[in-house]
Amino acid sequence: MSRGKEGDTAAAEARAASGAEATAGAPSTAEARAPAPDLRLLLPAAALFSGALAFLPALELRPNRVSAGAKAGLAAAAPAMTAALAAALGLVLVLALASAYAARVGASRAGRGRNGAARRSAERRRAGAALFFAAPLPALLLAGLGAGATSRLAGMAQGARASLGAGAWLGLAAALALPSALAPAFGAGAPKARRLAALTAAATAAILAAAGLLDDLSLAREFVARRASFGAEFPRHLAYALFPTLAAFVVAAPLGRAAARSRDWERPVFLVANAAQVIPTLALLGFLVAPLAALGRDVPFFRALGVRGVGWAPASLALFLYALLPVAANARAGFRMVDPAASDAANGMGMGAAGRFFRVELPLASPALVAGLRTALAQNMGNAVLAGLVGGGGLGGILFLGLSQAAADLILLAALGVAAAAYGTDRLLAAAERALARRTAAGAGAPC
Amino acid sequence: MHGATAIDGAAAAGVRSVAQWSGLAFLRRWWPPLVLALLFVLSVSRFDLLETALGPLLRRKTVFAARERLGVLALQHLGLVAATGAASFLAAFPLAVAAARREAGALRDLLLGAASFAETFPTVALMALLVPAVGYGFLPVGIALFLYGLLPVFRNTLVGLESTPPELVEAALGCGMNEGELLRLVRLPVAAPLVLEGLRVSLVVNIAAGAVGAAVGAGGLGVPIVSGLRAFDPVLILEGALPLALLALAADSFLRALEAGLAGRGSGRAGRQTRDSRKGAKHP
Amino acid sequence: MLEARGVRKSFPRAGARGKAGPAERALDGVSAVFPTGELSVLLGPSGSGKSTLLRLFNRLLEPDEGVLLVDGADARGLDPVTLRRNTGYAIQGVGLFPHMSVAENIAVVPRLLGWDRDRIGRRVRELLEAVRLPASFASRRPRELSGGEAQRVGVARALAADPPVLLMDEPFGALDALTREALQVEFARIQGRLRKTVVFVTHDLAEAVLLADRLFILREGRLLRSGSPRELLAAAGDDFVADFLGARFGIEMLGRESAAAAAEYAGSGPAGGLIASAADLGGAAPLGPEASLRDALARMIAEGRTALPVEGPRGRGLLRIEAIALAGRAAAGAGGNDARR
User: Fold this and answer.
1) What is the distance in angstroms between the CA of the first residue and the CA of the last residue of chain A?
2) Closest Cβ–Cβ partner in B125, B197, B240 for A8
3) Domain at C2-12+34-254, CATH homologous superfamily
4) What ipTM was estimated for this complex?
């Protein structure tokens, strides 16, 4: 059960975001380096990529889905794709080295060159080209693995599986690291470059999967075999994460605002919210079993709803409790940041309490509220796995099924689904937060 | 540097902090972790008291049939969390210090990005996936806890070191500190409360994840809960859940108290004193 | 002695959409000499490059072109860490370390220099006294100090290792007017005793005139004019400088002149009937020996008088309003010897 970051930590992260800029502007004998690819990351990543695929088994061929099997290298299994990958990596390296060299030469003549801007834009183009080839590399590797699996499985029995070996995982990790090494060449645009590269990789992988190129990988076979249950459990998982979190938002956001204004509220609210966050998932579920079982047994209304000691009820309630702290903490921070002067000004203009709240406080606090929702929702996307523990279904159900069958592919499939849902939610809401912060403009920024 | 605290002002500050450590002031800060730790010990050693007290409300279906007694399970849990927590702190802290260096460049962004993705991967899945590689038992759980424990410490230390107020950096450099002294004398002490917060989150996460480890045969306080959920026995569940919750709360409040102590060094009562004595202070 | 020769410095400016914009020129060929034992004030509007120039001298910044000399030695040849330990540095935000006590803050540089604990302890007590803070403050934390107290500690820290050179970047800028004035007077007193080579950045004319042995007027990275305040009052030499110094300059100058020095005394000079006219003053309280001509003028305006008694080092004297005008004109004239208080 991945217990994500707390609201406090999120706040600290925001501090770092502004702090990092400030530190960059701080005086130092080390003058700002010219934007260039980071070779100290690029070269090891490239070496890891080639080394892992050359010397470690990329595929594991197993007679059935749970037994061990024989190892196979990528070059032997898919020679054509291996060559293509090597060519792409070579291009990335050449372009990146050229860009880094140009930046170094440029830096030694810094400040004086009249054509500095033109030179910088040429460097940027080179780095952009390197990124263009590096970004889809993870997806290309998957395609190579898929092709290797197809060719190797051709002569084997029906139920045979080709799963990813250590070489494949390390290679994927190294390929995913490449854009990070190239991003510094874009200076302040580095985060955007990394985001773009990640999107490109995901989109390329999706296209390749849709085209059927990855069908013979064990994960894909497992997915096809379980398509129906995935189709049912994935939406259920999303619902587990979404509805309790929204309910918690409705409850905790006003409490956070009250806590921002008075210590009398702050103490009890955060005592409860923090305890709910700290108590381990398993213990929290354990506490809920007996009371909910009693409710479902003895109260007709709850019985009609289907409340039992296990199932959706304890899972939803636990997820609701987990979401309280991030929402309340961010709401408190957001409403605390509302400038008393802005409130006074609104008062002076003759706004009533409601007008002041909706037209001044809420817009100013909204980036923080969204940040709280984001933290809570992303956290609960992961925490929703616990529903599987009490028979509530969702991706956690599939995960624990895989656990009981000792089927690694099934576990991995469910886990990747959970991670993708959590990470995707986080990124999506982060984008929304940025957009909102930009609209609130120079004002609040993203406080949490 | 030798004799780093060798100044007479430090001695005076020392006297005051000794005063804070004594008697009531000590209790005011430390009673929550002390009470919670006491309750934890009680919940492990005298669970029968609770059972008799709640009596008819909680009817036990099965007798806890695990091979180990609850005390042993609690010790297993504590040992696992302490060992992995220490290991991940010792690994993550230097890594974060290295990543916070200006020269770390793109590595910092990569590590931070990887950490925030890794955090979303379900703990129990990682444990289960480790089983084929390292077998059942403590090892997969220990490795998973170690890895998950790294993330909060790494992120908080990095964030703490990077958010040193720029005027402090300027003042420190202006005083003639080199990079090492800047880190040791300014950045780390200023970041200390955040580093502790990272350690706290890391431990709390690991106490929770350690319980889930029961699912892959690691023992610990998760064992009665998992068996209880399977057998649908509320008493059995409570036998594990209560100490587990108290352990997490005790660890959390202990580290919070420590954080408060670090963040508020020299504040509190002394602050009020200042305002009063300021009137008396001679100002030319 | 500190000297800058033909120093240029520009900063890369962040342009739109994260692209690097054209470089911003902070210093554009500045040459200046800051003599040993004098307090030199860099004065100019914001963005004039005065802080940049200051930070070149302890190598927090490096020049693009030009040479910086510290006692005749090229700063580039000096180890920056050693250089900074031998150069006091005080900044506007004070930058006291929040996790250290006042004593530890003051002791930072001596500690870095490896002084033994007795010597450090003595030095801390000495400095607290010099900046007029009670010894009990040694164990306080920065957060327990008022702005003015924190700034005193900042000055004490800059002085801790008794560096020959002191760089100060608007050290009193963040304080309220009253506290600022008290600290300025205090600092002038300390400097009068220690005679450090001080480079002091400010955009506050009154502060500059009060403290400066030598004024350096900067604008947009160029040094427009330098000289003693009297020289600048006599001849601004430049429309911008004249505008920038403005009509207030003369009045601020009065703040430097001792009222006692300008007064007439019964025993010396042709001031017959002095005691009689002093009796006519109807018992006005005399000005103290520390009072400046500006203080005197302020009292005259407030009390509607044209003369005030003065308690000077040579006994009781009389200050007439004409004497103030004469002192102003004398200051603007030859330059002469500076009648600092």
Assistant:
1) 24
2) B197
3) P-loop containing nucleotide triphosphate hydrolases (3.40.50.300)
4) 0.78
